[in-house]
Amino acid sequence: MDTESAYSGYSYYSGRSRGSHRHGERSRDRHKSRSKESSRSEKSVTINAPPAEPLLGDQSVRGEEVQDDNWGETTTAVTGTSEHSLSQEDIVRISKDLDDSVGLDCKRYLNVALSVILGLVVFLTPLAFLILPHLLWPDRLRACGTACEGLFISVAFKLLILLLAVWALFFRPPRAGLPRIFVFRALLATLVLLFVLSYWLFYGVRILDSQDEDYQGIVQYAVSLVDALLFIHYLAIVLLELRQLQPFFSLCVTRSTDGATQHYNLGQLSIQRAAVVILENYYKDFPVHNPALLTASKSRAAKHLAGLKVYNVDGPGENNAAAGIAQSQSRAMIAAAARRRDSSHNELYYEEAEHERRVRKRRARLVVAVEEAFTHIRRMQEEEQKKAPGDVMDPREAAQAIFPSMARALQKYLRTTRQQHLHSMESIQQHLAFSITNNMTPKAFLESYLTTGPTLQYGKDRWLARQWTLISEASVTSGLKDGTVFLLKCIDFSLVVTTKKIPYIQLAEEFIDPKSHKFMLRLQSETSV
Amino acid sequence: MSFIPGHPVTAVVQRIEIHKLRDGDNLILGFSIGGGIDQDPSQNPFSEDKTDKGIYVTRVSKGGPAEVAGLRMGDKIMQVNGWDMTMVTHDQARKKLTKKNEDVVRLLVTRKSLENAVRQSMMQH
């Protein structure tokens, strides 16, 4: 998903300057926490929502405004061939890319640098503890016996393990960028820093000042430091990795535009981490968002209002008098619409039946065309390749050869199911070459066009992985609780997430003796006498 | 006709005397029985109480000696020639009815309509 590392959270900076002035924790955690950058919609900057903001009402108003203003543009972009037209999404995306690539690289490198410095300090502390006595008072130092030298080996290996473990846990490239700091990492970094500082304090006062001669004691002190660091690392593993594995909450994710719903079981996570998990699953579980499928219901809604012909040319936000008139007008419209005998349900039924019939007819033609096209191609065997090198084609050319015979049927089918903007001719030919190479049947080739797949199946420009905004009333670093609701907003749709606690299951036991399975015959005979 | 285990059963009965018909080597009575303590009482269509394991008349052949004597389908047979029929197995009941050396069987049967008739006549008084 988010493999480019050029982004660090814009809101890191704002989060940092806002709340936390702890210098030490800036280091490790900022870099290591998965930095999900906050996106900006074309109208407002949403980094973290203030708690008093109503969630859905605000969004719907904004959404309607967008729809009203760009109505013409989005419709034409969807129905035409999408090779050269720019929709609002594209404009936003381009401006975003320009924006983000400029100012944020230095932040990220700063984070990396600070975390590396902290890591080096922690790593070199035991070595410093061991080396400083030799440098400062070598003559007074008691010689190191065998047991002491054994401890050297243990320090070396433990440091090596610590190095590998810290790299594995903290220094791998992050999967996602989060809006706020990762609380656990911050706490752990603070803990480590305090710990190391207290060890240095003790060392400085008791050993350096008094120039202790007992070298074995110093070595044991260094070993104890490394042991304690390993235990802190163990705590880090439990807090960061293990705690969220046990399922605790069940999250219900609904897409606002078409109602597609999924459920996920998650452990105890903060809201932002839960959002990342949900988004990762979104790309594989939810069918791709198709705005073309929503125009039918919108036109029906428009017809309801259009029945009484009230024009409201100015947008919302006019002066109070006009707003008052508009309100009373809308109430009158609703009342009139309720009284009128509405036959739109009838139209909907017949329209849907007609559409279904049309889709099935086109689908039948498509399947036949593709099957026939596939019969024109045959895989050449090894011996034939050597014998007749004349008319040999590689998969790409073979695909281009048979594509024209099925192109028309495929294009018509995609138009009827309103998927034509999801597949370009290039991608269709590529998929055809891929199917031919892997000996797929026509049905296997068609599967990706007959059913809408998850978003990952389509091109990268559909992913919009950098455009997500987390909208939440509770603080996004607080943990999930029963009844937490938050929104994940993309450009033209949003995911509504509600949380429920997994019920506590009480199991009872019942023992059945295997010898207790006994049966008898039930007869009802009739005898004539 | 419901019974409580351990208590005596009271019922309004009708005496029916059937003369067996000789058909070749067999003596036939002209009806079929069902039920018995070794059978499944819940499948009995004639009993009121589905735990009643008594012997019931399931079929009466037309024009046979039983019909002539007044036996009806659904009657519960309480006694045959003095032998009790309320707590017998199906086979024991068959044996008591088909003894080769008896020409006549005297049954005590009960049915719901008898009880209703008696109750009605008692109410009239």
Count of helices of chain A? Answer: 17
Helix content of chain B: 10-25%
Largest interface: A-B, 8 and 19 residues
**Hey, roughly how much beta strand do the residues of chain B contain?**
25-35%
Looking at how many chains there are and whether they match, the oligomeric state comes to heterodimer
Total DSSP helices of chain B: 3
Estimated radius of gyration of chain A: 33 Å
Q: How many beta strands in the DSSP annotation of chain A? A: 6
Biggest sheet of chain A, in brief?
5 strands, antiparallel
Q: Helicity range of the residues of chain A? A: 55-70%
Amino-to-carboxy terminus distance of chain B? 24 Å
Helix/strand-derived class of chain B? alpha+beta
Instruction: Identify the strand order in the major beta sheet of chain A.
Output: 2-1-5-4-3
Alpha-beta classification of chain A = alpha+beta
Calculate the terminal CA-CA distance of chain A, rounded to whole Å.
Answer: 87 Å
Radius of gyration of chain B, whole Å: 15 Å
Described by the principal axes of the CA atoms, the overall outline of chain A is extended
Largest sheet of chain B: 6 strands, antiparallel
Mean pLDDT of chain A: 78
The overall pLDDT of chain B, averaged over residues, is: 89
Report the sheet-strand fraction of chain A.
Answer: 5-15%
Short description:
Chain A is of the alpha+beta class and 529 residues long. Helices cover 56% and strands 6% of the residues of chain A. In chain A, strands 2-1-5-4-3 form a five-stranded antiparallel sheet, with helices on one face.
